[in-house]
Amino acid sequence: MVGALTGPLYDAGYFRALLIFGSIMLVLGQMMLSLCHEYWQVLLAQAFCIGIGTGALFVPSMAILSTYFSTRIGLAIGIAASGSSFGGVIYPIVFHKLLPQIGFGWTTRVLGFIILATLIVPNICMRVRVLPAKSRSLLDLRAFLIPAYSFQVAGFFFGFMGLYMPFFYAQVYALQRHITNENLSFYLLAVMNSTSTFGRKFQPTKFTIQANANARTGIIPNIFADKLGPFNVVVPCTLISAVLCFCFITATSSAGIIILMAFYGFFSGSFVSLPPTIVVNISIDSRDKIGTRLGQSFAFISLGVLIGTPIGGAVLERGGFAALWTYGGCMLVASGVLLVAARVSWRGWGLLKKA
């Protein structure tokens, strides 16, 4: 949701301020987590401090790429975003290994120092290439008059409601159904994040074991997106992700669920990495509004992220895992249908058209 504010601030020329502010908030939140003993303290440190910090970093870091790249913007975003999937592999494993050795406090501090070290690089290197001609409003509501923009926002809203079911519940599923042991189930997330490095994008938001599953990025689909168009890539990847989510119903062996997690990580990765590319393409004639449009679109989509997983938990409690995987798959199917509508409204029905 923070993107609704940071997008316009980026368009107004405050990229450096957002970068520094976001970095401070991210490191501060992680360090303060090591001192937390009550729920409200964790809420402040993780949900608000880190949430606001990553919100300040996310949209500007994607929007700035459109000022440096044009013909291969999809590949540029995919490569830039791939770091979050790599982080989604590294951070949980570091936490898992250090926790029994040095305790919770110092383990979270070590992660904080890793965050600090990696954030030094963008703070030194990232610079705005094109300064804004004039200030912008907080919202560009006229963008919703573009059918493709509105359909893609709605599509990703429903998609994110179902996307994270395997990320949050696959470990529990594997343990309760005795598909894997506890040690192997932990690494299921690492498997999914490692394949998502090549199949997805970024959504760096929270750095706890479960929430790291949210961070993912994509390179390979973004390469095809530059050649075929982002809609022509994200639609089939979304529908394949839906089929894979349904397939969790039949997973009964460790080999089966590992393969499912790997393929789901790859194909769902495009679903996370391509939205910025789509907004950039739709806004090709309004590049000075890219930050604002990215921010407001992710502000709406964030509501799907917010409510999707708790709804999944309620579905699991009432209907079991089969109902949970069905819920996730259906949300992704609905997303695919809306993204098809966005693609058709943008470039028509021609299958060979780049869109």
Termini separation comes to 27 Å
Question: What would the principal axes of the Cα set say about the shape?
Answer: globular
Mean pLDDT: 81
Please summarize the sheet with the most strands.
none
| Structural category | mainly alpha
Helix fraction bin: over 70%
Ranges where pLDDT stays below 50 over 5 or more residues in a row are: 198-217
Number of strands: 0
Percent in strands: under 5%
Listing every helix as H and every strand as E from the N terminus to the C terminus, the arrangement reads HHHHHHHHHHHHH
What would you note in describing this structure?
- With 355 residues, this protein is mostly helical.
- It contains 13 helices and no strands.
- Helix 3 (39-63) crosses helix 12 (290-319), helix 5 (147-163) packs antiparallel against helix 11 (275-282) and helix 5 (147-163) packs parallel to helix 12 (290-319).
- The longest helix has 53 residues, at 73-125.
- The protein starts with a helix and ends in an 8-residue tail after the last helix.
At a glance:
The protein is an all-alpha fold.
Characteristics of this structure?
single chain; 355 residues; mainly alpha; 13 helices
Any chance you could write out the topology, listing elements then pairs?
Layout: H1 3-11, H2 15-33, H3 39-63, H4 73-125, H5 147-163, H6 165-176, H7 182-199, H8 220-228, H9 230-247, H10 254-273, H11 275-282, H12 290-319, H13 321-347
